[in-house]
Design a protein that fits this description.
CATH superfamily of the largest domain: Bira Bifunctional Protein, Domain 2
Radius of gyration: 27 Å
CATH class of the largest domain: Alpha Beta
Number of strands: 16
Order of helices and strands: HHHHEHHHEEHEEHEEEHEEEHEEEHEE
Distance between the termini: 58 Å
CATH architecture of the largest domain: 2-Layer Sandwich
Strand order of the largest sheet: 1-9-10-11-14-8-7-2
Number of domains: 2
RNA sequence: GGAGGGAUGGCAGAGCGGCCGAAUGCGAAGCUCUUGAAAAGCUUUGGGAUGCAAGUCCCCGUGGGUUCAAAUCCCACUCCCUCCGCCA
C-alpha cells in the first residue's frame, strides 16, 4: 500500500500520480480525510491513556503506603477517565479499521517515467527483436502458420479434450514430448538464473494474509481459487509465497539485494476473461512458471529492474523466438505496480503476440503490506525495502510459440539448441505418419 | 483427529497482577589501556505512533475479556515441541 505519510504531507503529488492511472480519486480524498480524523482521535486517546496510567500508578503507591482512603478516591477518578477513554478508543479503532481497509484498495503510484495512457492500446513498444526488420505477418513460412492446438493434437503432445474430462476446460494435458518440453523449459529457465538466484520451492497453498501482502487481496479475490474448508488460497504466481518469505523481517542492508527464484504451478480462475483468447494454451487455469524475484534497497531497484528484464529477455532470445518489449502505460498498470515491462513473443500459428513475461517494480508498495524493512548499514531508522519480480519463463505460451515456430514443412517440430540438453537426446518431434 | 507442554529483545533466558519495555548471560558497536591484537574495564545496543523538541502513547505469538492497573489472570486462534491415533 501507499505510505499514509505521503498522502498526508504530499497530498497533491499523490493525487496527481494516481490520476495518471485514470482511476476514481474519491477514495484517495476519503483516505486523507480519515487520516486527519484518525490522528485527532489518537491524540485525544493517548492523552486519556496517559492520565489513566498516572492515576493507576498513584493507586499502587497509595496502597503500598497504606493510604486506603486516598487509593479509594483515586480509583473513582480512574474509573471516570476510563469511561471517556472507552468511547474515544472505540471511535479511534473504527476510524483506523476504515482507513486500513481503504488503503488496501488504493493502487500504487506509477513511476514518473511510466508512459501515460488509458489502456493496453497506449502501451509503447520499446523494441522488436528477432524479425530482422520483417513484418510479423510476413516473417514466417506457411508451414509455421498452424496453431499449436492443431499441431499438439496431431503430434499427440497436447490433449485438451482429456484435460477437460479430468478437470474442465482450460486445464491442458501435456503428453509425451509435450510434457518433456514443458519440464525442459522450466529447467532451462532455472539453470539460466542459478548463477545469482537462490532456488526456493515454496508451498502453493497460502493464507489470506500472504495473498494480501502481494496485493491480490482484498481486491482480486474472484481471480484466485480458494479452499473454504481450510481457508487457504492457491497461488496465482510464485511471487506470492516468495515475497512473503521475508515478511515481517528487518533485513541487514548487507543482505540486499535478496534474489530468489522458484518454479511452481500457478492457478488462475480467469473469472473476468471468459471466452477471450481461450483457445489452446492461450489462457489456462493451471500452468508452471519460473519466477525470479528480488528484495532491494530503493537505490538498487532501478538496476535490478533492468537486470530482471535482461534475464527474462535473454531466455526468450536463447529459445530463438521473436519478441517485443512493451512498456506498460499508467492506465494498464497492475494495482501494485509502479513500472512494468511485458515481453511478448510472436506465435505465427495463432498470428498473435503472446504476453509471456511481465517484469515489474513495486516500489515499496508490497514491502509495506508485507512489512519488509532493512536497517541501513550506516545505522538509523529502518527503511521499507523495494520488491521486484518477473516471469523468467511461463510454460504454456512459450510452449505454444516454440511448437508453432519450430514446425517444419513435413509437419515435424524442431526445437532450438538451448533445449536439447533437457530433452533426453531429442532435438524435435517427428511427424506422425 | 485426541491428550499434554510451550511462545518474552539479535540469540539464550528470568519475571507469573502495580516499583517491568522488561534482570542476567552471550553476541554486536564505541571508548580506555596497547606498537597492533588478545585480555580486562567502562559505555551503548528492540520496533512503532505523534511532536520542532522535551516528552507522551503503543508493542512480551495474534485477537478478545477481567481489573483502577496485565508480560503476569481468563477465553479463542496461530505456530512450535512430546505422546497416542490415522495416513501418502
Amino acid at each position: 500500500m501507499i505510505d499514509v505519510r505521503r498522502l498526508r504531507d504530499d497530498f497533491d503529488a499523490v493525487r496527481h500520480a494516481l490520476a495518471r492511472r485514470g482511476i476514481d480519486l474519491s477514495e484517495v480524498d476519503r483516505a486523507a480525510d480519515l487520516d486527519r480524523r484518525h490522528r485527532t482521535l489518537v491524540m485525544r486517546r493517548d492523552e486519556l491513556r496517559g492520565q489513566k496510567n498516572t492515576v493507576s500508578k498513584d493507586i499502587g503507591a497509595a496502597r503500598r503506603a497504606g493510604e486506603a482512603a486516598r487509593a479509594f478516591a483515586l480509583t473513582a477518578e480512574s474509573t471516570a477517565v476510563g469511561e471517556e477513554l472507552d468511547q474515544v478508543e472505540a471511535t479511534t479503532v473504527a476510524a483506523e479499521r476504515e482507513l486500513a481497509a481503504l488503503l488496501l484498495r488504493i493502487p500504487n503510484l506509477p513511476a514518473d517515467d511510466a508512459p501515460d495512457g488509458a489502456s493496453e492500446a497506449d502501451n509503447p513498444v520499446l523494441r522488436v527483436v528477432g524479425l530482422d526488420g520483417a513484418d510479423a505477418t510476413s516473417g514466417y513460412a506457411e508451414h509455421q502458420r498452424v496453431p499449436h492446438w492443431e499441431i499438439g493434437a496431431s503430434l499427440g503432445i497436447l490433449d485438451l479434450e482429456r484435460g477437460a474430462r479430468i478437470s474442465g476446460s482450460m486445464f491442458p494435458v501435456y503428453r509425451g514430448m509435450g510434457a518433456t518440453l514443458a519440464r525442459a523449459l522450466c529447467q532451462l529457465a532455472l539453470d539460466r538464473n542459478a548463477d545469482a538466484f537462490e532456488e526456493v520451492r515454496p508451498p502453493t497453498l497460502v493464507r489470506t494474509a500472504t495473498l494480501q501482502a502481494t496485493g491480490q487481496l482484498p481486491k482480486f479475490a474472484d481471480d484466485a481459487y480458494h479452499i473454504e474448508r481450510d481457508d487457504l488460497w492457491l497461488i496465482p504466481t510464485a511471487e506470492v509465497p516468495l515475497t512473503s518469505l521475508r515478511r515481517n523481517e528487518i533485513l541487514a542492508e548487507a543482505e540486499l539485494p535478496v534474489r530468489l527464484m522458484g518454479c511452481t504451478p500457478c492457478y488462475r480462475r480467469e473469472a473476468g476473461s471468459a471466452g477471450r483468447d481461450t483457445r489452446g494454451l492461450l489462457r489456462v487455469h493451471e500452468f508452471d512458471k519460473v519466477e525470479i524475484l528480488a528484495v532491494t534497497t530503493p537505490a538498487q531497484a532501478a538496476a535490478m529492474h533492468a537486470e530482471l528484464l535482461a534475464r527474462a529477455e535473454g531466455t526468450i532470445a536463447a529459445l530463438g523466438l521473436a519478441y517485443r518489449i512493451v512498456d506498460i502505460s499508467t492506465g494498464d498498470l497492475g494495482q501494485s505496480h509502479a513500472r512494468s515491462f511485458d515481453i511478448e513473443v510472436y506465435a505465427p500459428g495463432c498470428g498473435m503476440w503472446l504476453e509471456v513475461s511481465s517484469v515489474s517494480w513495486f516500489s515499496d508498495y508490497q514491502a509495506r503490506r508485507a512489512n519488509i524493512r532493512y536497517r541501513p548499514a550506516a545505522g538509523g531508522q529502518t527503511i521499507m525495502c523495494h520488491t521486484l519480480n518477473g516471469s523468467a519463463l511461463a510454460v504454456p505460451r512459450v510452449w505454444a510459440a516454440l511448437v508453432e515456430v519450430g514446425r517444419q514443412p513435413d509437419g515435424s517440430v524442431a526445437f532450438p539448441a538451448a533445449l536439447h540438453p533437457y530433452l533426453r537426446g531429442a532435438t524435435g518431434i517427428a511427424a506422425r505418419v
